[in-house]
Amino acid sequence: MIQTVAFYLFSVLVIASAVMVIMARNPVHSVLWLILAFFNAAGLMVLVGAEFIAMLLVIVYVGAVAVLFLFVVMMLDIDFAELRAGFVKNFPLGIAIALVLLAELVLGIGAYRAGMIELGVASVATAPVLSASNTASLGAVLYRDYLFLFEAAGLILLVAMIGAIVLTHRRRPEGARGHQDIGKQVRRDPEKATVMRQPEIGKGIDL
Amino acid sequence: MFYASSLYFTGAEIGLSLSALVLLLVAAWGGQKTARLVTILSVAALVGATIFSIHLFDTASVEIAGRAFGDLYRADAFGSFGKILIYLATVAVLIVTPRFFDHRGAYRPEYPVLMLFNAVGMGMMVSATDLMTLYIGLEMSSLASYVLASFLREDTRSAEAGLKYFVLGALASGIILYGVSLVYGFTGTTNYDAIRVAFAANFSTGALFGVVFVLAGMAFKVSAVPFHMWTPDVYEGAPTPVTAFFASAPKVAAMAMLVRLAMEPFAGEVDSWRQIVIFAALASIVVGALGAIGQQSLKRLLAYSSINNVGFILIGLAAATPGGVASVLTYLVIYVAMTIGSFTALLMLRDPSGEPLDNLADISGLSTSRPVLAWCLLALMFSLAGIPPLFGFWGKFVVFQAAIQADLVALAAIGIAASVIGAFYYLKFIKVMFFDDATREVEKHSPTGHWTVLVICVLIISPLGYLLTIPLGDWTTRAAASFVAVM
Predict the structure, then answer these.
(1) What's the rounded Cα separation, in Å, for the pair B33 and B25?
(2) What ipTM was assigned to the predicted interfaces of this complex?
(3) Which domain holds residue B224?
(4) Is the pTM of this model over 0.90?
């Protein structure tokens, strides 16, 4: 009973917030609705027993991706009037694309009902991992069976980081443009950093 | 799963990774001035890894297959042999590197650290017995190579070489990955042994596509025709010591990886991949020889020469026998000696102000200005052309022998005929050095490190090298025996 209630609650909220993502006028609100959608999707994942994917959704999508979106959107200078300008002109095209997608969905579901296609059969059957939670099984595969590769992949990331720094970082000589003296920046005090001027109208100001 | 034995078998990689991490810290704290110290310590780490690999090579047998981490990695005789060659080539390159960059004030401690990570990746490539290990090793080595190619970042040509290598290398990695995914999809496993078993049961057209894609990506990595276009540009633009490195160690690693792939998971499908290898071999020999003829830049010339040599190595692989594998390894040893020798000689060619000379016209009259260097280059060029008293001939000989024993007489005949074309530009090189009048002034002295590397390489390819034929034959046969149990 409680599962059914939870399922419908999460589903309705996912759909509603997904609709709000595209309906919201303010892009910042869109991203916030997106975060709500992610949270509810995570709830659905928990319901079907995929707790690891639920954690990933919250940690990676909400924690990193959506927040990144939020920053990007906040930095954009969006003219809302311009956004809506082409709506009527592009309306038929949008409807056409929507119809194509609908047809695809119907066809896909019909094909799925009719039985799936055998593209190829794996010759070696892999034994399913039993009697452990998703997280524990994934951990076992990642950190026990493929420990060597996991560590090596970490080294690849390190190499990429060294490469990026080697190719772009340059220590600028003292006095050159772009040279940064952190000590000097920290020692700066407000009295010396700001000046008050009263420029006369029509004359330039000498800073 | 036994971690103790796994850690023992992967000792070379682990040792190199740890030294690279420590040296990275030294570089981060010590800054620019530690460059030389880090280089020396890197050489020491590589020598240590070489000694460990020699030990593994000695103790390896068919029974102790050196399987580590659930057969993701195998430290067998073949892998150890490849690694010894790779590490020694890397050491030689590190010895001749600093002077080239010092002249421009661009040498930094990250260079040897990237070389070490590159060596780790190459070791994984050679020992990979799982498609995932193969891919991760390949990426580690490639990623470090892209950075090394553009290490002279003030130089636009170096930056161009790095970018070109990066874009095309990423494309090749994508092709390999696509092939790997097809192979995995049709067999349900990425393990080499299991793939062979699965292919023996059922080899479908989709799996064939996978094999072809993997081989095409590999052909790119070894710069075999028709995937060779990047080679001359990258070799020309990259700093000369880096070019010397690209032409030696990563090529050995990619070739060993290709051989293992062909002889282990795809061993049952020889008929499927042999025609591809034969085509790539002949095309590489012909394109490598013809392309080199018009070149004025010595680095481009050596790039085409390396494409040409890859063709000969692939002939050994086309034989698809243990004898063929042994001949590939023999050729690789000789090829590395010739390549490192030629590039070291190239690095010693500088004008009195220290500017490197790398045009064909610049070396005219070298026999009068630097007779010893000219004679060394003469030996190296004759050896690359495969002219008998020199050891380069032996490499070609064993490769053709393996091809004939595998009933590929036509392939051997065309290969021999095409190698005559290649002789032309090697002889032109020698003619310019010995019979043309000098146009540029040449620096008279070179440091001991360069001389040591050059003299060792020249001694190996000189007629004295024939003393090596018996031990080299033994070693390569032992290494190739790694696959006998499998086949």
Answers:
(1) 13
(2) 0.91
(3) 3-483
(4) no
